[in-house]
Design a protein that fits this description.
- The chain is 24% helix and 21% strand.
- The chain is of the alpha/beta class and 413 residues long.
- The radius of gyration is 23 Å and the shape is globular.
- The N and C termini lie far apart (61 Å).
């Protein structure tokens, strides 16, 4: 196992490297990211041999059209003038709409982040990089990195998200600007070497119209979604990881009236809602001494004192389900949450498992859920990479006193 990572001050050579890499196409240099963000002592730059030798600063008259990326897909390389702003992962903009540079630690991944088809990146230690463009993960054969390189990249990515990863805290999840979510695990927890999983948010600030255009649901389902928002129904969105739960929930919440106050609570703040009054709360991991951690259950209790019109828990995965159900049962209409489940019929079993972590037996949980949740939306990801609402249901208490989900049929308009 490699030695623990030590953050060192950035050298003048690194600053020159950042300036060179982040210069705009018009020749003017963009600002270097803040110096208080942890960066690796050495930032590997030779991982992509095909790009290492080329000068990244285009000369006058150079063709800036999309370039063909590995795997036969097209994308752009640091070219905000070609790709739409909503599709540039990690692209942050100021009030004037001018694109800001990505953090330098993302530079080795730029060819893939600039490819609109890429949804996930996986770095499996020295074994290589795998890229998912919607049809499953494929190996990136041009990628080169040692285990030390990947560990340095993991530490830098987590540091850029405001958290730390080391031998004492080997598993960390962060969100970077632009909606990029990074999860990293260090050896020996990751037995095959440092493992980095990067999820790229493509439909940032998505609207229901956008999702309907992609085929996620039809007009009949759209009518149900619009009615649920108008009636301030309490929602639960279920699905597997990467199925589109957060995207759908954010799009629905974006339809809420502008005078309402939305408070969202997440382990890692992912919800990007097109709403003027959105308060985002994010859990905090403990420090190196094990103190200062603030979990989701605590944040739910604090949020109730903030007079939310809609209270949202990004993902229920533990005892916070008790606080959410209690809040939704005491007059907080229009709330929502997400939960992992394989199918609509599995939601009841998943909630019972979470309820047991919160000290609720199956019978108490059934009554709480049936009273608090009005609608369950199950989202699935198809083999071709498309997402769709696969089922809609209503929680009920069955004759045995246990929770069940009664499927609801949507009649065509």
């Amino acid at each position: 196992m490699s030695a623990p990572f030590v953050v060192q001050p950035r050298s003048e050579s690194f600053k020159r490297f950042a300036d060179d890499r982040l210069g705009s196409h018009r020749g003017a240099q963009m600002p270097v990211p803040p110096t208080d963000v942890p960066l690796p002592a050495r930032l590997p730059t030779a991982w992509l041999p095909a790009q290492r030798d080329a000068d990244p600063r285009p000369s006058q008259g150079q063709d800036l059209r999309p370039q063909r990326l590995p795997g036969g897909h097209h994308g752009t390389h640091l070219n905000a003038a070609v790709a739409p702003a909503s599709l540039l992962a990690g692209d942050t903009r100021d009030d004037a709409g001018t694109p800001a540079p990505r953090h330098p630690v993302l530079h080795p991944l730029s060819p893939y982040l600039d490819d609109p088809a890429v949804t996930d990146l996986f770095v499996n230690g020295s074994a290589g990089l795998f890229v998912d463009r919607g049809a499953g993960a494929e190996v990136a054969r041009e990628w080169r990195a040692t285990e030390d390189d990947v560990r340095d990249l993991a530490v830098a990515l987590i540091g850029a998200g405001g958290r730390h990863i080391d031998d004492a805290s080997p598993c960390v999840d962060v969100r970077l600007d632009g909606g990029i979510r990074v999860h990293a695990m260090l050896p020996p927890i990751a037995a095959g070497g440092t493992a980095i999983s990067i999820r790229v948010a493509r439909l940032t600030d998505a609207r229901l119209d956008d999702l309907q255009a992609t085929g996620m649901f039809d007009a009949a389902v759209r009518a149900v979604l619009d009615d649920a928002i108008a009636r301030r129904s309490n929602l639960l969105v279920s699905g597997a990881a990467g199925a589109g739960k957060t995207t759908l929930l954010a799009a629905m919440l974006g339809q809420a009236p502008r005078h309402e106050r939305l408070v969202t609570i997440e382990d890692v703040a992912e919800l990007r809602i097109d709403h003027p009054h959105h308060v985002r709360l994010e859990a905090r991991q403990p420090n190196l001494e094990g103190a200062g951690g603030i979990g989701l259950a605590r944040l739910v209790r604090e949020a109730l004192r903030m007079r939310p019109d809609r209270l949202v828990v990004g993902e229920c995965r533990g005892e916070e389900v008790r606080e959410l159900l209690s809040a939704l049962n005491t007059g907080h209409d229009g709330g929502a949450g997400t939960v992992h489940a394989n199918g609509l019929g599995d939601v009841a079993a998943r909630l019972e498992a979470l309820g047991s972590l919160a000290g609720l037996d199956d019978f108490a949980l059934a009554r709480q859920v049936a009273s608090a949740i009005d609608l369950v939306l199950h989202v699935e990801r198809r083999p071709d990479g498309s997402r769709r609402i696969a089922g809609i249901g209503t929680p009920v208490v069955d004759p045995r006193g246990r929770l069940a989900i009664e499927e609801r049929r949507c009649e065509p308009q």
